[in-house]
Batch of 2 targets.
Target 1
Amino acid sequence: RKEVEQDPGPFNVPEGATVAFNCTYSNSASQSFFWYRQDCRKEPKLLMSVYSSGNEDGRFTAQLNRASQYISLLIRDSKLSDSATYLCVVPSGGSYIPTFGRGTSLIVHP
Amino acid sequence: IAGITQAPTSQILAAGRRMTLRCTQDMRHNAMYWYRQDLGLGLRLIHYSNTAGTTGKGEVPDGYSVSRANTDDFPLTLASAVPSQTSVYFCASSVLGSGNEQFFGPGTRLTVL
């Protein structure tokens, strides 16, 4: 099993839809989790951190399920501008080295 | 400088040539990283440095070397470029620690012919 796995998509949704992505990880010792957003041909940028209690920022909600070893990202009321690739990041257990998933592509259409 | 910069923005290189990609940050972050990103493979870590004077190997270090003489600079060298090193290269920095955000440079698009 790869350390961090994501469904590459693409997820093709209409404006206003709710969409959710999952990211599974293999190292149960991992403590910190993140979602990054990457626009085409640009650098990744932090979207949000994922806390044990969950994290909500406007239309975006991130949650952690330690028992099943996955994190999720929920986007409500999708906008055209949400079209991007969403990368999950899990630091390797016992180190500070972050491991990126391959990303999930989201396309929001009118 | 504001944040993290990379140079050059893009480069076409003949196979066998030596090339150094530059990365500079002004945030006084102790940790720095080099990634390559290829279609379908995501971001893969090449080398990293937790603090000035130390470096470590990532997932795909072969054919690359790095140095960390000071806090701000973290150059990546390809001693003898090969076509499989054609990729987009991203440098990143962060405060050392697993719970800290990484900040990325704009990337260098390298083509090896």
Note: Chain A is about 0% helix and 55% strand.
Target 2
Amino acid sequence: AQSVTQPDIHITVSEGASLELRCNYSYGATPYLFWYVQSPGQGLQLLLKYFSGDTLVQGIKGFEAEFKRSQSSFNLRKPSVHWSDAAEYFCAVGAWNQAGTALIFGKGTTLSVSS
Amino acid sequence: DTAVSQTPKYLVTQMGNDKSIKCEQNLGHDTMYWYKQDSKKFLKIMFSYNNKELIINETVPNRFSPKSPDKAHLNLHINSLELGDSAVYFCASSHGLAGEITDTQYFGPGTRLTVL
């Protein structure tokens, strides 16, 4: 069955420091991978997505993610975190089910930014 | 303009009541979705709707029913509300058919339902 694991429930990073959020997926075929961000009290916003091609994907707000098939990972990175990046981050895989497609989400990682 | 909007933003109600959450998208998308986010922030698909046809119906109770009066709207009706229905419900939409796995889904701001 398809699944997404985000090993880190909560991460705290100092403002200006680099960030890496981990995501591992389980999917039999070529995965379609997404990172979404949820700011407090807000809906989800797409940061970036990977379907094929270059394994390093650039997204909005200075985020990037690298797809590593050998490790079944799609980790999100940012070289310098800003206080406004504090939010909930969700990794997801686009998966087929019996009737169509759906996003299968991980349980999310809460990012706190300290000054 | 808000791309995907939901009303109400907050909904507090008693057990046993029937309630509806409305969703509208002005993106011209073909497919709309409902997701449930539980108290641990876990997001799970409930329904996917395309061209007024239910495409995905995950294992949700029959008390939940999506209603789509037109392509731009997908409302969620919940009958006989239970305590366990308390959650944040997100509406989303995407451009193509539900089979287009690569389509970006655009989410609404969510509706926080509290059942007392």
Note: Chain B touches chain A at residues 4, 33, 40-45, 48, 50, 55-58, 90, 92, 98-102, 104-110 (CB under 8 Å).
